[in-house]
Design a protein that fits this description.
The structure is a single chain. The chain has 426 residues and is α/β, with parallel strands linked by helices. It contains twelve helices and 17 strands. It is 33% helix and 23% strand. Helix 2 packs parallel to helix 3, helix 9 packs across helix 10 and helix 9 packs antiparallel against helix 12. The N and C termini lie far apart (55 Å).
Length: 426
């Protein structure tokens, strides 16, 4: 754990990034406007959680590693809210060091605001070195903002190596280290590029999932402070860091106010609607016990084999379940909202028993087995269906498939047919 009290030879700070203030949440307003309003405030709520954390922990400064705002034409409201946070830090004598990223480059519109003296914004022309001084203990912070939205150059190559006169040095940058498929690559660099500069800590932004790329020296993505959509599950927040030369300790701190719970729930063995409601209640209670200080938005994919499969194909049934769980939620306080249920369950059908029958369904099962077992037959089928995928209309609407994907499609087609004809089969 990080010791919150600072001796004369130590400092503490918060490393944060990707606040994305004013970020829109799509697909919710159509369902519930009050919930949409709650979500629209979530990035601001998590930001102030960060500010109050810094004040409570009595840190020396806060690092912001880019994408404070969600858009380069940031709203006046989001700028005023960020200003309010900086003023709160200033009242507690906490410095703020800021670089801008691809979402909020310096070239974007900014209001003419009077920033308090604790705010230090790095330029976008070249790396700057800013010095934090406390009790004769200096920390050199090297950073650079994005001047424009698209930065394809490796900005790390412009950063100076650590000087012998710099006892502790922190790099502050919004960049892509290695290959991160979930994000576009901006200012791409490698771990080796960062390590060559001999800095004591790299405070990075851009990747939204909290990630420790290296422990010695620490090279860390703090992640975003609030998950903004169902793809950003798990804890979101910042890192609390204490530098006590030569020791560096860091702990993750949650700041989000809304937690996305997206999961696959197995319905294997469930036989009634009561079983399903009980299972959902049990899962939700577990999540609530783990996230006691957050509101929760749930999206569940129902899988497995259950007698409920056919019933759950009825959208009205799904809507009734959502209404049952959501009607009693008070959106003015902490809530648990099931936003979506997707039915991917199958009926508990015994293929072997069907194959032994003498009817149409047994012929379908046998035909699928023959294609799976005989590669020549599968190749012939593949060549036949390829004409559909390769036609002019097919290319407009369909992605090409390979033989392995065709095997999967055959089983999926069999499942659909059997489900339709065997709803009452045990």
């Amino acid at each position: 754990m990080v010791n919150e009290s600072n001796s004369a030879n130590s400092i503490s700070f918060i490393h944060a990034a990707d606040l994305h203030l004013d970020s829109p949440f799509s697909g919710i307003a159509e369902i519930n406007q009050k919930l949409a309003h709650k979500l629209s405030n979530a990035t601001f709520d998590s930001f102030f959680n960060l500010i109050y954390l810094a004040i409570r922990k009595e840190v020396n400064f806060v690092l912001f590693a880019g994408d404070i705002y969600d858009n380069q034409n940031k709203s006046l409201y989001s700028q005023l809210q960020f200003l309010k946070g900086m003023e709160l830090l200033n009242e507690s004598k906490i410095e703020a060091y800021i670089v801008h990223g691809n979402h909020d480059p310096l070239s974007g519109w900014s209001a003419h605001l009077n920033w308090p003296e604790n705010v230090h914004i790095f330029n976008g022309k070249e790396p700057e070195v800013k010095v934090f001084k406390s009790n004769d203990f200096n920390v050199h912070i090297v950073g650079m903002s994005y001047q424009e939205h698209h930065i394809k150059d490796n900005l790390v190559k412009q950063f100076p190596a650590k000087s012998k006169k710099w006892p502790l040095t922190i790099g502050l940058l919004h960049c892509s280290v290695g290959n991160h498929g979930e994000h576009y690559s901006y200012s791409p660099c490698t771990l080796n590029d960062l390590n060559q500069l001999n800095y004591d800590y790299w405070a990075l932004g851009h990747v939204h999932t909290p990630s420790i790329l290296q422990n010695n020296p620490p090279i860390i993505y703090s992640g975003n402070t609030q998950g903004r959509h169902p793809g950003e599950t798990g804890e979101r927040g910042c890192y609390l860091v204490k530098m006590d030369n030569p020791q560096i300790k860091y702990t993750f701190q949650s700041t989000s106010t809304i937690y996305w719970d997206c999961a696959e729930l197995s319905l294997n063995g469930l036989n009634s609607e009561s079983d399903l409601i009980e299972m959902l209640n049990k899962h939700i209670r577990t999540v609530k016990n783990e996230q006691t200080d957050k509101s929760i938005i749930c999206r569940y994919k129902l899988v497995g084999k259950s007698k409920l499969s056919s019933i759950l194909n009825d959208e009205e049934v799904i809507d009734n379940i959502l209404k049952y769980f959501n009607d009693d939620q008070n959106l003015d306080s902490q809530f648990i909202w099931i936003d979506r249920l997707r039915n991917h369950t199958k009926l508990p059908i015994n293929r072997q028993n069907i194959a032994q029958r003498q009817d149409l369904l047994s012929e379908i099962v046998k035909l699928v087995d023959e294609y799976q077992a005989n590669d020549d037959d599968l190749t012939e089928l593949f060549e036949t269906v390829s004409t559909l995928f390769n036609s002019n209309d097919g290319k407009r609407f369909l992605q090409p498939i390979n033989k392995s994907e065709l095997r999967t499609i055959l089983y999926e087609a069999e499942d659909i047919i059997l489900d339709q004809f065997m709803e009452n089969d045990e």
